[in-house]
Design a protein that fits this description.
The protein is an alpha/beta fold. It is built from 11 helices and 12 strands. The chain starts with a strand and ends with a helix.
Length: about 240
């Protein structure tokens, strides 16, 4: 299992939201590139970036900050938020991102995911965000009548590299991940699943490691590593069996 630190961008700064609410944000760093470099220094092997403004606007909004991050680090990075078409995907990959995450557009237009996987093999991730098991889109502002598992099944055979599953109700709340929902989703599809939302302590990562056999291959952590509730280097060592 890989531990992936997150950088959520709002107006060019690193923030964390509570339950996806844009008006409940905490700024952790005014310099996203410096923060990314710090996560790399602590041993991160992959960086997770979210353009929060882009997620709500439906188009990229933090390009300069993203470029600065990519210019600072040597590890791979993946990005989601406001990615709605092939042109945006191509532009982001050309910047140097390793993978892009399709979220809202995946739910509304599964054919986009299929086309993107064909055109950019190995570089497409699907983000599924859910509230009470139902998929939420448009920066989590709209909850649909589609379950996370039903949506995930639509992408089987497309060549999706991974599904990032976020339980909105736990995101930024440090309440622990939704293990049961994450396990159920991972077992519903053959696509690897990355857990996101609620990770607050090393014990949470241990619990996720216990369901790795179900197909949970990674965990994204944000607020916990910013506040120091989890030391990133310790979490990485844990997953590698070094502690």
């Amino acid at each position: 299992m890989i531990v992936i630190p997150a950088i959520d961008l709002k107006e060019g700064r690193c923030v964390r939201l509570e339950q996806g609410l844009m008006d409940k944000d905490t700024v952790f760093n005014d310099d996203p590139a410096a923060q990314a470099l710090e996560w790399q220094r602590q041993g991160a092997e992959l960086l997770h970036i979210v353009d929060l403004d882009g997620a709500f606007a439906g188009e990229p909004r933090n390009r300069s900050a993203i470029e600065a991050i990519l210019g600072a680090i040597s590890i791979p990075a993946q990005l989601g938020g406001g990615i709605r078409d092939l042109a945006t995907i191509e532009a982001y990959l050309a910047l140097g991102l390793s993978r892009v995450i399709i979220g809202t557009a995946a739910q509304r237009n599964p054919d986009l995911v299929k086309d993107a996987c064909s055109r950019f093999p190995g570089r497409i991730v699907v983000g599924i965000d859910a509230k009470n098991g139902m998929v939420a889109v448009q920066g989590w502002a709209e909850v649909t009548d589609c379950t996370a598992a039903d949506l995930a099944r639509k992408f089987e055979g497309f060549g999706v590299s991974a599904i990032i599953y976020t339980d909105i109700s736990r995101d930024g709340m440090l309440q622990g991940p939704n293990l049961e929902a994450t396990r159920e989703l991972a077992e519903a599809v053959a696509i690897p699943v990355i857990a996101s939302g609620g990770v607050s302590r090393l014990e949470d990562i241990k619990n996720l490691m216990a369901i790795e056999k179900s197909g949970v291959t990674g965990v994204i952590t944000g607020k916990a590593v910013y506040t120091g509730a989890i030391k990133l280097a310790e979490a990485i060592a844990l997953t590698k069996g070094e502690v």
